[in-house]
């Protein structure tokens, strides 16, 4: 009987463990933006970088659905939130590394999305990727100081 009770308890733990993750995933983009607006310092940097990533995924969905104008608007919003994340991380000197990593992943994802677009739609996305990479470089500079630039 003890074995069966232990097995049930263990099963319950494994079944209920993902619930907090589902609650996080259930947040809408609007709720996440509201949280980011209320937060400060390193927490705001992390939340803004999450908003940027979600905006990129939203842009991908818009591009897939053929809503190119909405896709480009979401890309512009992603860059704006990445800038907010950079500013919050630099000003507070907190969560610089996590913010830089999140922006790098967002830039890589946006670059991958840009490769799937029609030729006419790519330049704006490529420019956004460059802006995200500049933000990433600025975060690295905030962490390690100005690097030696080669001409």
Please, could you describe this protein's structure?
This protein has helices spanning 2-16, 19-25, 29-38, 41-64, 68-92, 96-115, 122-144. The chain is mainly alpha-helical and 151 residues long. It has one domain (28-143). Helix 4 (41-64) runs parallel beside helix 6 (96-115) and helix 5 runs antiparallel to helix 6. The protein is flat and about 40 Å long.
Walk me through the topology:
Layout: H1 2-16, H2 19-25, H3 29-38, H4 41-64, H5 68-92, H6 96-115, H7 122-144
Helix pairs in contact: 3-4, 4-5, 4-6, 5-6, 5-7, 6-7
Shape: flat
Helix content: over 70%
Class by alpha and beta content: mainly alpha
As for the number of domains, it is 1
Tell me about the largest β-sheet. Answer: none
End-to-end Cα distance: 74 Å
> Which H/E pattern describes the elements?
HHHHHHH
Query: Mean pLDDT, as a whole number?
Result: 86
Number of strands: 0
Oligomer: single chain
Radius of gyration: 19 Å
Q: What's the tally of helices?
A: 7
Our estimate of the beta-strand percent is under 5%
In short:
The chain has 151 residues and is mainly α. The protein has helices at 2-16, 19-25, 29-38, 41-64, 68-92, 96-115, 122-144.
